[in-house]
Amino acid sequence: MPPSATVLEPGLVVVRGLLSSAEEERTAREAWAIGQGNGGFYKDGALNAAAGRGRIYDRAERFAAHYKATCDAAVAEARRVDPTMPPMLFTHLLINCYLTRDGLMWHRDIYENDGKSDHPVVNLSLGAACRFGWKHERQDEGQSVVLESGDVLLFGGPCRYILHTIEEILLDTTPPWMDGFEPGPLRFSFTFRDAPEVLGREEEFRFFKFSADMKEQDDFDKARRDERAALARAYQPPKMAVVPATPAA
Ligand SMILES: O=C(O)CCC(=O)C(=O)O
Ligand SMILES: [Fe+2]
Fold first, then answer.
1. Does the beta carbon of 191 lie inside 6 Å of ligand 1?
2. 56, 123, 168: which to mutate for ligand 1, most atoms within 8 A of CB?
3. Where would I find the Fe2OG dioxygenase domain in this sequence (predicted)?
């Protein structure tokens, strides 16, 4: 099946059908295996990020070459359909493993380990589907999209700093290959990031919990509001040019 891309809005694109189901299964099994070891999804016998979620964050070179190939193919496809989507260079991978229905709270990817530019965050889903919500401002009504196994969501350019949430993991919506999956139904997300600033400092971000950092989220929102207010104050309506009517000959 050739990949197909949908532009949800400029800077926000879903690419579907990049991986075969054999590739999806292989990647999920590989991620589950990496997650059991040192530097995996667990710390002191418990999942390391939340009650139902474990995470791995490390530099790109730690992972097999097919991750970069998938990321690059998704970026190329998204840029083909959306000219506002910037390029990106994959430097770090965050793998989230969700074992319960619990998703992830509203947040913006504003931290150093998320990357500091408008280059897209590239997010591959495998296993159980999820409902992904997004909006630009806190007071906006959110929109949502279901991400299924194999879907790649990219947010960059004008959407790089959107507010987003994983509303729910749909544990009963799994691809056929997950029927035989040893730990049972679960969701993986593989988030590819262009974050050259943190190369060599991966240890600092291994157990990062953004729920503890909501002040930074609030500060970011306030800075946005202030910036928009300043732009609105500085705005001068364009002067209308008065063109004299040409007298009829
Ligand atoms: O799991 C996902 O798909 C989203 C992860 C996410 O938003 C994040 O880690 O910042
Ligand atoms: Fe995020």
1. yes
2. 123
3. 89-196
